[in-house]
Amino acid sequence: MAIRATLRGVENDRFAGLTNWIEVSRGALEHNISLFRRLLNPGTAILAVVKANAYGHGLEQVARVCVSSGVEMLGVHTADEVAALRRMGVELPIMVMGYLTPQQVADVVDPGVHVLLSSYQVLEALAAHGRRLGRSLAVHVKVDTGTHRQGVNPGEAGQLAAAARSAGLTVAGVATHFANIEDTTDHTYAYLQLERFRGAAAAVQEQVGAVRWVHAACSAAALLFREADFGMVRVGISLYGHWPSKETHLSWLLEHGRDGVKLEPVLAWRARAGQVKEVEAGAPIGYGLTYRPTRASRIAVLPVGYAEGYPRALSSRSRVLLRGRAAPVVGRVCMNIFMVDVTDIPDLRDGDVATLIGADGDERVTAEELAENAGTINYEILARLSPSLPRVLVE
Questions:
Q1: The CATH number of the domain where 52 resides is what?
Q2: What confidence score (pLDDT) does residue 6 get?
Q3: Segment 160-172, tens digit of pLDDT
Protein backbone atom coordinates (compact mmCIF):
# COMPACT_ATOMS: atom_id res chain seq x y z
CA MET A 1 0.00 0.00 0.00
CA ALA A 2 1.38 3.40 -0.97
CA ILE A 3 2.21 5.79 1.85
CA ARG A 4 0.58 8.56 -0.19
CA ALA A 5 -2.80 6.81 0.07
CA THR A 6 -2.41 6.51 3.84
CA LEU A 7 -1.72 10.22 4.21
CA ARG A 8 -4.81 11.22 2.25
CA GLY A 9 -7.07 9.83 4.99
CA VAL A 10 -8.43 6.98 2.87
CA GLU A 11 -11.07 5.26 4.99
CA ASN A 12 -10.79 1.79 3.50
CA ASP A 13 -7.09 1.42 4.27
CA ARG A 14 -5.61 -0.73 7.06
CA PHE A 15 -5.42 2.29 9.39
CA ALA A 16 -9.08 3.32 9.04
CA GLY A 17 -9.87 2.40 12.65
CA LEU A 18 -6.97 4.34 14.16
CA THR A 19 -6.69 7.97 15.23
CA ASN A 20 -2.92 7.80 15.70
CA TRP A 21 -0.35 5.07 15.17
CA ILE A 22 3.28 4.20 14.54
CA GLU A 23 4.43 2.54 11.35
CA VAL A 24 7.50 0.30 11.57
CA SER A 25 9.22 -0.32 8.26
CA ARG A 26 10.40 -3.90 7.81
CA GLY A 27 12.49 -2.92 4.80
CA ALA A 28 14.30 -0.11 6.62
CA LEU A 29 15.08 -2.35 9.58
CA GLU A 30 16.38 -5.12 7.33
CA HIS A 31 18.45 -2.56 5.42
CA ASN A 32 20.13 -1.30 8.60
CA ILE A 33 20.95 -4.82 9.79
CA SER A 34 22.42 -5.61 6.38
CA LEU A 35 24.42 -2.39 6.45
CA PHE A 36 26.13 -3.43 9.68
CA ARG A 37 26.80 -6.90 8.31
CA ARG A 38 28.76 -5.26 5.49
CA LEU A 39 30.48 -2.73 7.73
CA LEU A 40 31.68 -5.03 10.53
CA ASN A 41 34.70 -7.28 10.43
CA PRO A 42 33.83 -10.72 8.99
CA GLY A 43 32.40 -13.04 11.63
CA THR A 44 31.42 -10.29 14.06
CA ALA A 45 28.04 -11.07 15.62
CA ILE A 46 25.24 -8.53 16.05
CA LEU A 47 23.33 -8.08 19.29
CA ALA A 48 20.21 -6.10 18.43
CA VAL A 49 19.30 -3.86 21.36
CA VAL A 50 15.50 -3.97 21.76
CA LYS A 51 15.20 -2.53 25.26
CA ALA A 52 12.74 0.29 26.03
CA ASN A 53 10.10 -1.20 23.73
CA ALA A 54 12.72 -1.37 20.96
CA TYR A 55 13.56 2.32 21.39
CA GLY A 56 9.86 3.09 21.10
CA HIS A 57 9.41 1.15 17.85
CA GLY A 58 7.58 -1.84 19.36
CA LEU A 59 9.29 -4.85 20.93
CA GLU A 60 7.22 -7.46 19.12
CA GLN A 61 7.45 -5.91 15.66
CA VAL A 62 11.18 -5.25 15.85
CA ALA A 63 12.17 -8.53 17.51
CA ARG A 64 10.43 -10.61 14.87
CA VAL A 65 12.26 -8.82 12.05
CA CYS A 66 15.59 -9.10 13.88
CA VAL A 67 15.12 -12.84 14.35
CA SER A 68 14.19 -13.38 10.70
CA SER A 69 17.20 -11.25 9.67
CA GLY A 70 19.59 -13.53 11.52
CA VAL A 71 20.96 -11.41 14.34
CA GLU A 72 22.78 -13.55 16.89
CA MET A 73 21.34 -12.12 20.11
CA LEU A 74 18.75 -9.67 21.44
CA GLY A 75 19.56 -7.19 24.20
CA VAL A 76 17.06 -6.05 26.83
CA HIS A 77 17.21 -4.20 30.14
CA THR A 78 14.50 -5.73 32.31
CA ALA A 79 13.01 -9.04 33.38
CA ASP A 80 9.67 -7.99 31.90
CA GLU A 81 11.27 -7.66 28.48
CA VAL A 82 12.70 -11.18 28.74
CA ALA A 83 9.28 -12.52 29.66
CA ALA A 84 7.64 -10.67 26.77
CA LEU A 85 10.10 -12.10 24.24
CA ARG A 86 9.60 -15.62 25.55
CA ARG A 87 5.80 -15.22 25.36
CA MET A 88 6.27 -14.28 21.71
CA GLY A 89 8.08 -17.57 21.18
CA VAL A 90 11.49 -15.98 20.58
CA GLU A 91 14.12 -18.67 21.10
CA LEU A 92 17.13 -16.54 20.22
CA PRO A 93 19.64 -15.93 23.05
CA ILE A 94 18.68 -12.86 25.09
CA MET A 95 21.08 -10.69 27.06
CA VAL A 96 19.82 -8.85 30.13
CA MET A 97 21.88 -5.68 30.46
CA GLY A 98 20.12 -4.26 33.53
CA TYR A 99 19.89 -5.24 37.19
CA LEU A 100 17.87 -8.31 38.18
CA THR A 101 16.62 -9.04 41.69
CA PRO A 102 17.01 -12.62 42.98
CA GLN A 103 13.26 -13.15 42.43
CA GLN A 104 13.51 -11.92 38.85
CA VAL A 105 16.41 -14.27 38.23
CA ALA A 106 14.21 -17.17 39.34
CA ASP A 107 11.27 -15.92 37.27
CA VAL A 108 12.83 -15.29 33.86
CA VAL A 109 16.37 -16.63 33.51
CA ASP A 110 16.63 -19.82 31.48
CA PRO A 111 19.64 -21.44 29.79
CA GLY A 112 19.13 -19.16 26.77
CA VAL A 113 19.25 -15.96 28.83
CA HIS A 114 22.65 -14.35 29.28
CA VAL A 115 23.12 -11.95 32.18
CA LEU A 116 25.55 -9.05 32.24
CA LEU A 117 27.22 -9.72 35.59
CA SER A 118 28.25 -6.78 37.78
CA SER A 119 27.73 -7.93 41.36
CA TYR A 120 28.23 -10.89 43.67
CA GLN A 121 24.59 -10.71 44.78
CA VAL A 122 23.40 -11.45 41.26
CA LEU A 123 26.13 -14.09 40.91
CA GLU A 124 24.80 -15.93 43.97
CA ALA A 125 21.19 -15.70 42.77
CA LEU A 126 22.13 -17.07 39.34
CA ALA A 127 24.18 -19.89 40.84
CA ALA A 128 21.31 -20.93 43.12
CA HIS A 129 18.84 -20.80 40.23
CA GLY A 130 21.18 -22.82 38.05
CA ARG A 131 21.41 -25.51 40.70
CA ARG A 132 17.60 -25.69 40.85
CA LEU A 133 17.46 -26.07 37.07
CA GLY A 134 20.37 -28.47 36.96
CA ARG A 135 21.97 -26.25 34.29
CA SER A 136 24.93 -23.89 34.10
CA LEU A 137 23.67 -20.41 33.32
CA ALA A 138 25.55 -17.95 31.08
CA VAL A 139 27.05 -14.70 32.35
CA HIS A 140 29.12 -11.95 30.77
CA VAL A 141 31.49 -10.15 33.12
CA LYS A 142 30.75 -6.41 32.92
CA VAL A 143 33.88 -4.28 33.20
CA ASP A 144 33.65 -0.60 34.12
CA THR A 145 36.44 0.94 32.08
CA GLY A 146 35.46 4.54 32.75
CA THR A 147 31.72 5.10 32.59
CA HIS A 148 31.35 4.51 36.35
CA ARG A 149 27.95 2.88 36.06
CA GLN A 150 27.45 -0.88 36.25
CA GLY A 151 30.45 -3.18 36.28
CA VAL A 152 33.59 -4.03 38.20
CA ASN A 153 36.91 -2.28 37.90
CA PRO A 154 39.28 -3.79 35.30
CA GLY A 155 41.52 -5.15 38.05
CA GLU A 156 38.60 -7.09 39.58
CA ALA A 157 37.28 -8.65 36.36
CA GLY A 158 39.37 -11.81 36.57
CA GLN A 159 38.37 -12.36 40.19
CA LEU A 160 34.64 -12.02 39.39
CA ALA A 161 35.00 -14.41 36.47
CA ALA A 162 36.76 -16.98 38.64
CA ALA A 163 34.07 -16.69 41.32
CA ALA A 164 31.35 -17.17 38.72
CA ARG A 165 33.00 -20.31 37.36
CA SER A 166 33.53 -21.69 40.88
CA ALA A 167 29.81 -21.15 41.55
CA GLY A 168 28.90 -23.29 38.55
CA LEU A 169 28.14 -20.52 36.08
CA THR A 170 29.39 -20.40 32.49
CA VAL A 171 31.42 -17.28 31.75
CA ALA A 172 30.29 -16.83 28.17
CA GLY A 173 31.49 -13.29 27.67
CA VAL A 174 33.15 -10.13 28.88
CA ALA A 175 31.87 -6.64 28.07
CA THR A 176 32.29 -2.91 28.61
CA HIS A 177 30.56 0.28 27.51
CA PHE A 178 31.96 3.55 26.19
CA ALA A 179 31.46 6.76 28.13
CA ASN A 180 32.42 9.47 25.64
CA ILE A 181 32.16 8.27 22.08
CA GLU A 182 28.98 10.03 20.91
CA ASP A 183 29.40 13.54 22.30
CA THR A 184 32.78 14.36 20.79
CA THR A 185 34.99 13.97 17.76
CA ASP A 186 38.00 13.50 20.08
CA HIS A 187 38.02 9.79 20.89
CA THR A 188 41.07 9.77 23.16
CA TYR A 189 39.03 8.61 26.14
CA ALA A 190 37.39 5.86 24.10
CA TYR A 191 40.77 4.50 23.09
CA LEU A 192 41.86 4.61 26.75
CA GLN A 193 38.78 2.53 27.61
CA LEU A 194 39.63 0.07 24.84
CA GLU A 195 43.13 -0.35 26.28
CA ARG A 196 41.71 -1.01 29.76
CA PHE A 197 39.16 -3.43 28.35
CA ARG A 198 41.73 -5.48 26.48
CA GLY A 199 43.63 -5.96 29.73
CA ALA A 200 40.50 -6.93 31.62
CA ALA A 201 39.35 -9.34 28.90
CA ALA A 202 42.77 -10.99 28.98
CA ALA A 203 42.56 -11.33 32.77
CA VAL A 204 39.12 -12.94 32.54
CA GLN A 205 40.33 -15.46 29.97
CA GLU A 206 43.40 -16.26 32.04
CA GLN A 207 40.99 -17.35 34.79
CA VAL A 208 38.31 -19.20 32.82
CA GLY A 209 39.77 -19.87 29.38
CA ALA A 210 38.58 -18.42 26.07
CA VAL A 211 35.12 -16.87 26.10
CA ARG A 212 32.87 -16.74 23.06
CA TRP A 213 31.50 -13.21 23.36
CA VAL A 214 33.87 -10.27 23.82
CA HIS A 215 31.97 -7.03 23.20
CA ALA A 216 32.40 -3.31 23.72
CA ALA A 217 30.88 -1.53 20.73
CA CYS A 218 27.64 0.44 20.83
CA SER A 219 26.20 1.93 17.64
CA ALA A 220 28.76 4.74 17.49
CA ALA A 221 31.71 2.40 17.94
CA ALA A 222 30.22 -0.09 15.49
CA LEU A 223 30.11 2.70 12.92
CA LEU A 224 33.52 4.23 13.63
CA PHE A 225 35.95 1.72 15.17
CA ARG A 226 36.73 -1.65 13.60
CA GLU A 227 39.19 -2.28 16.44
CA ALA A 228 36.19 -2.40 18.80
CA ASP A 229 34.34 -5.12 16.87
CA PHE A 230 35.83 -8.05 18.85
CA GLY A 231 33.38 -10.95 18.65
CA MET A 232 30.12 -9.03 18.85
CA VAL A 233 28.71 -5.49 18.71
CA ARG A 234 25.60 -4.13 20.40
CA VAL A 235 23.65 -2.03 17.90
CA GLY A 236 20.95 0.19 19.39
CA ILE A 237 19.94 3.59 18.00
CA SER A 238 21.45 2.96 14.57
CA LEU A 239 19.53 -0.30 14.21
CA TYR A 240 16.53 2.03 13.93
CA GLY A 241 18.13 4.25 11.30
CA HIS A 242 19.56 7.10 13.36
CA TRP A 243 23.05 8.42 13.91
CA PRO A 244 23.84 8.45 17.64
CA SER A 245 24.77 12.13 17.44
CA LYS A 246 25.89 14.89 15.10
CA GLU A 247 29.43 14.31 16.35
CA THR A 248 29.32 10.63 15.39
CA HIS A 249 28.11 11.53 11.91
CA LEU A 250 30.78 14.21 11.59
CA SER A 251 33.47 11.74 12.69
CA TRP A 252 32.31 9.38 9.93
CA LEU A 253 32.32 12.14 7.32
CA LEU A 254 35.80 13.32 8.31
CA GLU A 255 37.15 9.79 7.97
CA HIS A 256 35.15 8.39 5.05
CA GLY A 257 33.36 11.21 3.27
CA ARG A 258 29.74 10.73 2.30
CA ASP A 259 30.11 7.22 0.92
CA GLY A 260 29.36 3.90 2.52
CA VAL A 261 26.65 4.41 5.14
CA LYS A 262 23.01 5.37 4.61
CA LEU A 263 20.92 4.63 7.66
CA GLU A 264 17.19 4.31 6.99
CA PRO A 265 14.79 5.58 9.69
CA VAL A 266 12.45 2.74 10.65
CA LEU A 267 9.63 4.65 12.34
CA ALA A 268 6.86 6.95 11.16
CA TRP A 269 4.28 8.47 13.53
CA ARG A 270 0.89 9.47 12.12
CA ALA A 271 -2.28 11.03 13.55
CA ARG A 272 -5.60 12.03 12.04
CA ALA A 273 -6.87 15.59 12.31
CA GLY A 274 -9.78 15.30 14.69
CA GLN A 275 -11.23 18.68 13.81
CA VAL A 276 -10.42 21.56 11.47
CA LYS A 277 -11.84 24.89 12.65
CA GLU A 278 -11.83 28.60 11.82
CA VAL A 279 -10.21 31.00 14.32
CA GLU A 280 -10.33 34.81 14.20
CA ALA A 281 -7.17 36.90 14.17
CA GLY A 282 -5.98 37.51 17.73
CA ALA A 283 -8.02 34.67 19.25
CA PRO A 284 -5.96 32.79 21.88
CA ILE A 285 -5.22 29.15 21.17
CA GLY A 286 -4.76 26.57 23.92
CA TYR A 287 -3.88 26.67 27.60
CA GLY A 288 -2.30 29.82 28.96
CA LEU A 289 -3.39 31.87 25.93
CA THR A 290 0.20 31.64 24.73
CA TYR A 291 -0.46 31.92 20.99
CA ARG A 292 -2.64 34.36 19.05
CA PRO A 293 -2.63 34.25 15.24
CA THR A 294 -2.09 37.56 13.46
CA ARG A 295 -4.60 36.64 10.74
CA ALA A 296 -7.82 34.69 10.47
CA SER A 297 -6.65 31.10 10.55
CA ARG A 298 -7.65 27.49 10.17
CA ILE A 299 -6.54 25.27 13.03
CA ALA A 300 -6.34 21.47 12.98
CA VAL A 301 -6.70 19.64 16.29
CA LEU A 302 -4.62 16.46 16.55
CA PRO A 303 -5.50 13.74 19.10
CA VAL A 304 -1.95 13.42 20.45
CA GLY A 305 -0.10 15.06 23.33
CA TYR A 306 2.62 14.59 25.89
CA ALA A 307 0.89 11.50 27.32
CA GLU A 308 1.51 9.84 23.95
CA GLY A 309 5.11 11.07 23.90
CA TYR A 310 4.92 14.37 22.01
CA PRO A 311 6.98 16.65 24.27
CA ARG A 312 5.34 19.70 25.85
CA ALA A 313 8.62 21.48 25.10
CA LEU A 314 7.54 21.49 21.43
CA SER A 315 4.73 23.96 22.17
CA SER A 316 4.82 26.50 19.30
CA ARG A 317 8.26 25.10 18.39
CA SER A 318 7.62 22.30 15.94
CA ARG A 319 5.76 21.29 12.80
CA VAL A 320 3.86 18.38 11.31
CA LEU A 321 3.24 17.42 7.69
CA LEU A 322 -0.22 17.39 6.12
CA ARG A 323 -0.81 16.72 2.43
CA GLY A 324 2.94 16.99 1.90
CA ARG A 325 3.17 20.48 3.42
CA ALA A 326 4.43 21.73 6.77
CA ALA A 327 2.01 23.02 9.40
CA PRO A 328 3.42 24.73 12.53
CA VAL A 329 2.45 23.65 16.04
CA VAL A 330 0.64 26.53 17.76
CA GLY A 331 -0.11 26.95 21.44
CA ARG A 332 0.77 24.54 24.20
CA VAL A 333 0.97 20.82 23.67
CA CYS A 334 -1.68 19.34 25.97
CA MET A 335 -1.87 15.91 27.58
CA ASN A 336 -3.70 14.29 24.65
CA ILE A 337 -4.11 17.12 22.11
CA PHE A 338 -2.12 19.70 20.23
CA MET A 339 -3.00 22.18 17.52
CA VAL A 340 -1.41 23.14 14.20
CA ASP A 341 -2.02 26.05 11.86
CA VAL A 342 -3.26 24.75 8.50
CA THR A 343 -4.29 28.08 6.99
CA ASP A 344 -1.94 27.53 4.06
CA ILE A 345 -3.32 24.02 3.38
CA PRO A 346 -6.81 25.04 2.25
CA ASP A 347 -8.01 21.63 1.06
CA LEU A 348 -7.45 19.94 4.42
CA ARG A 349 -10.43 18.21 6.04
CA ASP A 350 -11.31 16.31 9.20
CA GLY A 351 -9.73 12.84 9.24
CA ASP A 352 -6.74 13.71 7.05
CA VAL A 353 -3.49 12.21 8.25
CA ALA A 354 -0.67 14.25 9.78
CA THR A 355 2.90 13.00 9.99
CA LEU A 356 4.55 13.82 13.31
CA ILE A 357 7.74 11.86 12.54
CA GLY A 358 8.50 10.56 9.08
CA ALA A 359 7.96 11.47 5.45
CA ASP A 360 5.02 12.80 3.46
CA GLY A 361 5.86 13.38 -0.17
CA ASP A 362 9.15 15.24 -0.45
CA GLU A 363 9.00 16.57 3.12
CA ARG A 364 10.26 14.81 6.25
CA VAL A 365 10.17 15.50 9.98
CA THR A 366 12.91 13.63 11.83
CA ALA A 367 13.33 12.56 15.43
CA GLU A 368 16.49 14.66 15.38
CA GLU A 369 14.51 17.78 14.43
CA LEU A 370 12.06 17.23 17.28
CA ALA A 371 14.92 16.56 19.68
CA GLU A 372 16.72 19.76 18.76
CA ASN A 373 13.55 21.82 19.13
CA ALA A 374 12.75 20.18 22.49
CA GLY A 375 16.29 20.48 23.85
CA THR A 376 16.93 16.74 24.10
CA ILE A 377 18.31 13.84 22.03
CA ASN A 378 16.77 11.55 19.42
CA TYR A 379 16.99 8.59 21.84
CA GLU A 380 14.55 10.27 24.24
CA ILE A 381 12.09 11.33 21.54
CA LEU A 382 11.84 7.72 20.32
CA ALA A 383 12.04 5.84 23.61
CA ARG A 384 9.28 7.92 25.22
CA LEU A 385 6.68 7.15 22.56
CA SER A 386 3.83 5.65 24.55
CA PRO A 387 3.55 1.85 24.49
CA SER A 388 -0.21 2.40 24.14
CA LEU A 389 0.22 3.68 20.58
CA PRO A 390 -0.56 0.97 18.01
CA ARG A 391 2.53 -0.26 16.17
CA VAL A 392 1.99 -1.58 12.64
CA LEU A 393 4.66 -3.39 10.65
CA VAL A 394 4.67 -2.09 7.07
CA GLU A 395 6.57 -3.40 4.09
A1: 3.20.20.10
A2: 42
A3: 999 999 999 999 9
In this structure, are 132 and 200 located in the same domain? yes
Do 299 and 220 fall within a single domain?
Answer: no
- 331, part of any domain: yes
Backbone CA torsion sign across 138, 60, 78, 154: positive
pLDDT of residue 255: 87
- Of the candidates 116, 53, 122, the one whose C-alpha atom is nearest the C-alpha of residue 85 is 53
pLDDT digits (tens, 9 = 90+) for 10-61: 444 788 899 999 999 999 999 999 999 999 999 999 999 999 999 999 999 9
Both 238 and 271 in a single domain?
Answer: no
Ranges of residues in the chain with a pLDDT under 50 are 1-6, 9-12
**For residue 76, what are the domain limits?**
26-256
Contacts of 227 by beta carbon, 8 Å cutoff, 6+ apart: 194
CA–CA distance, 57 with 388 (Å, rounded to integer) = 12
The verdict on pTM exceeding 0.90 is yes
Domain presence at residue 262:
no
Of 262, 287, 291, 379, which one is the catalytic site residue?
287
Interatomic CA distance for residues 358 and 374, integer angstroms: 17
51 is catalytic: yes
Q: Is the Cα torsion angle 89, 95, 100, 106 positive or negative in sign?
A: positive
Of 202, 235, 256, the domain-final residue = 256
Known active-site residue 262: no
